[in-house]
Design the sequence.
């Protein structure tokens, strides 16, 4: 019996040491996390995420995929931080527009998505127009995009730049709001 006693004591001390090492200091001190601490914590993290969204007729309206989605639920609204998000908008059964960016934030269950960092929106099939901007707000359900940043639109060798943009992706209309400059290459 005596030969087991030192082994039991060593195992108990190692277990107690691991428990202290893994426990947050607030829990060791008996303090409970505040509501602000809970608000900072993510509710859900999804890696290699892909979501599909359908319109009222039941046909595929758009898809969103991202390297990572970090979801936060707050008292009045929710937010999802997107890492390398890509969105594909459909018209009927054909893909029509594809967006890509480095990061994004989706608000209110995806009703508004802010894309930022080398944002590109490409008309499909290529070659079609390509829009580039550092930041843009997209309302996916309305298929509407807008920004107050500088935008560059290319269509083959043709190029148009300006500040601010409103784009109705459903109607295939793009409006640059100010400081428009264009260069066209004749064929």
Sequence:
């Amino acid at each position: 019996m005596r030969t087991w006693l030192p082994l039991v004591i060593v195992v108990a001390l190692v277990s107690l040491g691991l428990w202290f090492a893994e426990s947050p200091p607030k829990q060791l001190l008996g303090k409970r996390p505040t509501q602000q601490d809970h608000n900072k914590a993510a509710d859900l993290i999804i890696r290699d995420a892909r979501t599909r969204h359908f319109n009222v007729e039941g046909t595929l309206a758009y898809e969103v995929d991202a390297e990572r989605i970090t979801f936060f639920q707050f008292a009045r609204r929710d937010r999802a931080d997107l890492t390398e998000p890509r969105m594909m908008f459909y018209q009927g059964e054909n893909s029509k527009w594809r967006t890509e960016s480095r990061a994004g934030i989706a608000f209110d269950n995806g009703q508004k998505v802010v894309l930022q960092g080398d944002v590109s929106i490409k008309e499909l099939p290529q070659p079609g127009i390509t829009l580039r901007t550092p930041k843009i707000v997209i309302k996916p359900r309305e298929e509407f995009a807008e920004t107050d940043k500088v935008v560059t639109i290319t269509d083959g060798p043709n190029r148009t730049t300006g500040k601010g943009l409103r784009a109705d992706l459903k109607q295939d209309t793009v409006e640059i709001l100010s400081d428009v400059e264009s260069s066209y290459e004749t064929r």
